[in-house]
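Duplicate of earlier report; TIM barrel protein input re-posted below.
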Amino acid sequence: MSTRRSVLKSLAAGTGVFSLSEVFAANEKALGAKLNGKINHSVCKWCYGKIPLDTFAKECKEMGITSIELLGPEDWPTLKKYGLTCALPNGAGMGIEKGFNDLALHDELVKSYEDLFPKLKEAGYTTVICFSGNRRGMSDIDGMRNCAIGLRRLMPSAEKYGITMIMELLNSKVNHKDYMCDHTAWGAGLCEMVGSEHFKLLYDIYHMSIMEGDVIATIKKYHKYIGHYHTGGVPGRNEIDEGQELYYPAIMKAIVETGFKGYVAQEFIPKREPLASLKQCVQICDIA
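Output:
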């Protein structure tokens, strides 16, 4: 039985249209070429933990990547050394499982973020990651209200320092059992409840493909609430090439068509040589 991908490949052979594998091969040859500029490329350092940050920053700079993210204040000087930014810093909060849906944690969370905001401002960064926390039996509406209460406390400081708090959408089906902010509609509802442009969502394509599917339609519907994007191959969170089910060039095109001017960060766990995989996946997302 023919698969959709085999049909596309046979059509490509007969009509002169390039197959995905041919496109990827061409991208490999063009790895040293200048990027097209429609996507601002970032990468999450945790996926490359064995590579020293100094070495990694140098390699990213040569690839045309302009940001390395999910790093705290102790690592920012290394990024500055190579003329890189941190499109989504961390350094505050209590981790993924303990977040703003727990009223008992609000005082500690507010202090943590208020202490970080001036450091972000001084470094020239304008975003920071945050999390809802796990449900622990809480209803979605109660969790949303609790999150909004805590986040509203931070909005005056966020606005003062020019910081946008970015809450990550994560899947609770495979990787983060019981996590509350696990559907885009819930996150959008929270954005409405908070009522500030200084609170947005991190739409993780890998996570939301697992939870919802319908990635492009969801991005088009909710793009005004999205402040950042992450990639990852489905299933497995590995390379975003032909070994997984998502077609990233079309997803990137949809993101660009929404008018998005922020960053798209590679967040996949490489199965092959890490830097070669990173180069290839940046090229896959670098639409013309």
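The beta strands are 40-44, 67-69, 127-130, 164-168, 199-204, 226-230, 263-266.

Merging into the original ticket.
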